[in-house]
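PROTOCOL LOG
Step 1. Enter all chains and additional molecules of the complex.
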Amino acid sequence: MKLLLTGNEAIARGAWEAGVKFATAYPGTPSTEILENVATYKEIVSEWAPNEKVALEAAAGASIGGIRSLCAMKHVGVNVATDPLFTFAYLGVNAGAVLVTADEPGMHSSQNEQDNRNYARHAKVCMFEPSDSQEAKDMLKEAYAVSETYDMPVLFRMTTRVCHSKSIVSCSDREEVMDKPYEKDIRKYCPLPAFARGMQVKLADNFKRLEAYSNTTPFNYSEDNHSDIGVIGSGVAYRYAKEVFGNTVSYLKIGFSYPLPMEKIAAFAKGKKTLYIFEENDPIMEKEIKAAGIDCIGKEKLPVMGELTPDRVRKALLDETVQIIEPNPELVLPRPPALCAGCPHRGVFYELGRRKDLMIFSDIGCYSLGLMAPYNATDAMICMGASISAGHGVQKAFDIKGDHSKKVVSILGDSTFFHSGITSLMDVTYNKSNTLTIILDNRITGMTGHQQNPGTGYDLMGEAAPMIDIEAMVKACGVKNLISIDPNNLQIVEEAIEWGLNTDGPAVIITRWPCVLKKFSGQDNEEFPMAFKKVCSVDVDKCIGCKKCLKSGCPALAFDRANKKSGILKESCVGCGVCAQICPKQAITVEVR
Ligand code: SF4
Ligand code: SF4
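Step 2. Run joint prediction.
Step 3. Record the structure below.
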């Protein structure tokens, strides 16, 4: 059977065909759809974990317990999961275990462009790198065989273009893999220093065997086009090389990329006048090949940052400029990223942006949009969960310096709070900070596309799940000053912020209102019966054209320059009423749809 699949769908199919029985992930672009698709296979128990470390630990446990497991995350998620990863490599597996890292050259929706091939070398785990959906499925199945044969978890690197591009995939039936018996073996599963030293030696031996595998696996193959120009390429970079050079050069395709097949590489390089290394981001293969004494051209010509598109390759190697059709600026209006019309975070950012006495540490998620105009309500952000702990550090710096001109506010969402905000909040209370934390609970994991989380009442399989109470969690972290508010009421938001800033000791505000794009659950309907059932309009006779309502930043608002009047797009407006509260002339009215 042949199917048209994205790389992420192909990973899910590969997991199913490989007999995987347990899969877990924390969502993050470009990896999110892997688990969403795995969850459609009823033979695989699929879970969203609160964060990537937890996900990998659960997958490691399933492997030790005797069933094949899959874990997926975006590239920065692997940073969170490194603690178990480095030691899981020492322990090895019982049943096969694969960690998929979805890297993002070009940073389309990420805070950095880290190249997770470095983690394979650092954590001492082998690595596959597919170039398309067929390879993604086939290599994933092979990765389980490698994991079990060489007794190690496998790092499996996807990149955005491979994750999201579609190509035809030949599919097979599911292989029913025998579950492995679990046997107590403390020398294998307990890395006490005395045992870990032995594990390290075993790992080094396994890598020697893996070098032989790398030199013989059909996933590392050459295409001889009788040219004295050669390209060694991995991942989607290999496809770009094919697109630019076609059959005019010879290729060595690297699919199993760590350890590198140095014997195959040396044989391929022999007699080549020019040897190019095609890899996105860091010069990892290039450095190892040069260190082996093989002359090659890599990052001195090809870009080290961003995606390696065919156009960039043509420009870098052939000095050919590709003609680009520029959009007509009169037809295509600039559309900066903005909070959606009716976003429940709007009121908070509107109020925070009005204050000049705050240092606002934001987190990763929809709330990162609070830094955009018209709010300008963010000073800094680092990574998931950092808003609270980094905010704590800033406040400590202010306190130590005796600088009382600004107070720190930390902002994060519900999923981020569960991900790593809890431990940061414990740090704040334990170390007697007096920051204000605002948890924007929009009842879903918003920016990655509405995945369930421990606070939503549902699991990845769509079944009802216990709903973790954020208020109770905050109290359990030692916070005594806590209020929950409706973020659409600007007066309440303003008063809550004032209360939080004047509270002695750490304070937490929880804003509770569902994401405007959310499919409401029964519980949401009960708690928010009138949400998004209203619409606003501007009374043009009352409107004086002051544009204050535009400061709400809502994309449903438009301004008629000719008549100097505001207007509201009824199709977009959900009647949250934020703009109506800003209008000084009560020119905006709210009515039930
Ligand atoms: S009420 Fe105002 S702020 Fe709210 S969605 Fe409608 S136009 Fe936007
Ligand atoms: S704030 Fe009110 S008066 Fe001012 S432009 Fe908007 S609708 Fe008109």
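Step 4. Note key features.
The chain has a mean pLDDT of 95.
Residues 538, 543-549, 566, 583, 585, 587-588 surround iron/sulfur cluster (ligand 2) (CB under 6 Å).
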